[in-house]
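User: I'm putting together notes for a lab meeting next week and I want to include a structural view of one of the chains we've been expressing. I don't have a solved structure, so I'd like a prediction I can at least talk through. The sequence is below, exactly as it appears in our construct file.
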Amino acid sequence: MPEAAFFDLDKTIIAGSSSLAFGKPLYRAGFLRKGHLLRLGIGQFAYMLFGADEDSLARARDEMLDLVSGWHKAEIDAIVAQTLDDVIEPLVFAEALFLIDEHMRSGRKVYVVSASPEEFVTPIAKMVGIDNVIATRIRTDGLGRYVPELERYVMGPGKSDAMVEAAERDGIDLDGSYAYTDSFTDMPMLEVVGNPVAVNPEKELREAALENEWPILEFQRPVSLEPRVQAPPKRVWIPVAAGATAVAVAVAITRRKSEDTKR
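Assistant: Thanks for the context. Below is the predicted structure for the 263-residue chain, given as structure tokens.
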């Protein structure tokens, strides 16, 4: 059976929060007020320093649903498309690009799995070359306006459930697959695969990774995607991610195969 690699988005593929990154464009377009931006900024600061627990994420979910109720999905899609390069491209980790490329070269199917809305996640995934997206979906009415209800919430156990569903649909061997995330709330995501990896982990996840002897990777180098977009060979941008971190990434991918060979 084929294997897969499942990547969280925020603080794993990009340096920060996708929702916060699109906050300013939404503010300029009149969808957010200054108070909303301030709350987003404070929430992001706490998230970057301390991570996020289930209660805080649940509150953020409820606030998001109240906030977006009545917005037109098509307008949000247009704003995201117009501002994607400016607000997201500077945040993409070079080390994440390296890993994504290596998994694809190894024949694995690559997914982005995120609690953020599909409207944000899908364009970012396509930007880094990933077609398979598992993300939160907000319900819309007959006129294309958001209502304060979720069709799918991809957080905590919701991530692992969605991964199992995708694996059954696509014929994926989860025991041979990989998962990457920064958050302790994503433990179900890590536990459902045979090769869990902690990336830029918050304190609780770092402790869990050490206890379970899972690899820990530190992504620190956001990089422009220009060379990757313009140049035909995939390896053109790989030197950007070279060095100790890239070596650690390669070791993380191949370690299990080496151990299996020795057995």
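A couple of points you could mention at the meeting. The longest strand covers residues 109-117. The chain is about 50% helix and 15% strand.

User: Perfect, that's what I needed.
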